[in-house]
Amino acid sequence: MLQKADPRNQDIKVWIKDKLYAREDAKISVFDSVVQGGDAVWEGLRVYPSGIMLLDRHLNRLYESAKALAFADIPSEDFIKDAIKQTLDANSMDRDTHVRLTLTRGDKITSGMDPRLNQSGSTLIILPEWKPPVYDNEKGITIITSTIRRNNPAFLDSKIHHNNLLNNIQAKIQANVAGADAALMLDKDAFAAELNGTNIFMVKNGTVFTPYATACLHGITRGFIIDLCNMTGIDIQERNLSLTEFYNADEVFCSGTMGELTPITMIDGRVIENRNGTAVMKKLIGEFEALIPKYCVSL
């Protein structure tokens, strides 16, 4: 699965710091901390006709990530919301849009890792693109298990939604070489953590399971699916899950803002066989789509 460029995105306008720029002029300094050390936090937002899905949860995670990294200058939620609205309005985007929202520590007065060198405030980047969900939710995707382990809080806490994504990129390279769509990353104890870009779930005998959010990102869509299961009476459990359990699951799917809920049809060459005839994933997809208007924030 390789995303394709949408020609409509050639003329987009991008927000940087405090104003809009044409795509060809949307640039940041070589002294910006995201260039110097991947020192930034980010969110992926999806725009529907009724608004932005779970926007407040995304902005809360952005704030908590920036706070954890001791950013000295975090824009207010109202400022960010207004900037997003201006950006979407300037691009006439009200559907089929993905927004990459990035907050960097800002420019440095000279190269170096010391955050005290950042003395001009943070840099807010709002990059909107025409981009429907990137996966085929009918066909599904295939995955392999990566040898690259997912970080845990002993090294770099996955609850910080940071821009240092080399860990995930290495896993994606392995998936590409293997001809798979994505890579499953394990934690330090060889339990499943998440895919290189999305969270993972499995269904067995009508119960939904998902890994603890220890070595995986506490995804916004992941959290919403857990809420959705509780609201609709579907049994859901968070626990350590081995590869063997995923190989023998009735259904496996991943979740994320870029692809919503996507079936996983094969793991390491093992076809996912629904021997119990469950339809939990289909129910969750239907409930998810039905609740989008209720959980969207209109700006």
Structural account:
- The protein has 2 domains: 7-130, D-amino Acid Aminotransferase, Chain A, domain 1 (2-Layer Sandwich); 141-297, D-amino Acid Aminotransferase, subunit A, domain 2 (D-amino Acid Aminotransferase, Chain A, domain 2), CATH 3.20.10.
- The strands form 2 sheets. Strands 7, 8, 9, 10, 11, 12, 13, 14 and 15 form a 9-stranded mixed sheet that branches.
- It starts with 12 loop residues before the first strand and ends with a strand.
- It contains 7 helices and 16 strands.
- β1 (13-16) and β2 (19-22) form a beta hairpin.
- Helix content is 27%, strand content 27%.
- The chain has helices at residues 33-37, 55-68, 77-90, 166-178, 220-232, 243-247, 280-295, and strands at 13-16, 19-22, 40-48, 51-53, 97-104, 123-130, 141-145, 182-186, 192-195, 199-204, 207-210, 236-238, 251-256, 260-267, 270-271, 296-297.
Summarize the structure.
This protein is α+β, with helices and mostly antiparallel strands. The protein is 27% helix and 27% strand. Strands 7, 8, 9, 10, 11, 12, 13, 14 and 15 form a nine-stranded mixed beta sheet that branches.
